[in-house]
Amino acid sequence: MICCPFCGAENIPGDDLCEVCHEPLSTLHLPEPATEVERGLIKDRLESLNPRAPVVVEPEMPVLPVLRMMLDHKIGCVLVVKEARVVGIFTERDALLRLSDDPQEWKDRPVSEFMTPNPQTLDLKAKVAFAVQRMDQGGYRHVPVVDDQQRPIGVISVRDILRYLTERLGAPV
Amino acid sequence: MPSDLDEGAAAKFHLKLDSETVAEVISADPVCVSEQATLREVLSLLRRLGRGCALVCQEQKLVGIFTERDALRLLALLGAGNVQLLDQPIRSLMVPNPVTIRKDATVAEAIRRMSQGGYRRLPVVDGNGTPVGVMKVSGILHYFAEHFPKYVYTLPPEPHYAPRERDGA
User: What residues pair up with A146 in beta bridges, in sequence order?
Assistant: First the structure.
């Protein structure tokens, strides 16, 4: 018998939905994890990576002070936040690819003109496996972590994920 | 979903990390510029190609690296009025003698070197010191994702996010 993760009712192995509450049982059909990495990927949530507190700016902030802020904080991205919600992300990649050689064209312009609007975000409760998938498929190196109101809580970087994986993998590092 | 995970998956993965070489994992050709190229030329090349770093080479040998991190610092200086920097040769603005990895090194070695040094990318060189590619941290993430597909691609973010009702009529 397999136990429904939602209501605790016992079900016949192979069923798709719980007989009692009709919640999906699909996550129980994953193969038994064989290593620490696999166990962690499907059990651990992003909160276990201790995301760094985000550096946030307003959409109206001019580009030049945003660049200085990124240098001072030694960070690769800032979250652009309006009314406590994430509306964009501005990364060093955006700076390189979107800012021209003529600083007059951007230094006093609002960062919202150069940011990536509506970035993919992740819930603090999301599983690490889900973050790996999203970052890999989207090619993101930084993903804002938000609460259920889209309020920013932190930033997960691809290096955080690498550290997590290598720590659990044991052998290589 | 059948429970078909082969017993030795973890052992096999470790074996792969220790046997597969960097050359088998890197993809895109590196962007190479000469030491004399100006900042203006390098920035415009990276913008045009949509790439985040240039390897600086002299006679086929790697002598430096210029990344988006360096670009950020220089853009801030341009914004502060130092526009003459645009005509400086990249030689004076690059990071000289970057840490590299040989193309016949294993993936495990690359991961170790990256996480110890905190590098996001490592230029990959052949036996003569000629750059043949760049190993990026995102490439390693992809490597992991490919080796744990069952775990990485089949899981909803949170059991409660799974659709509660069937789609369609």
Answer: A123, A152
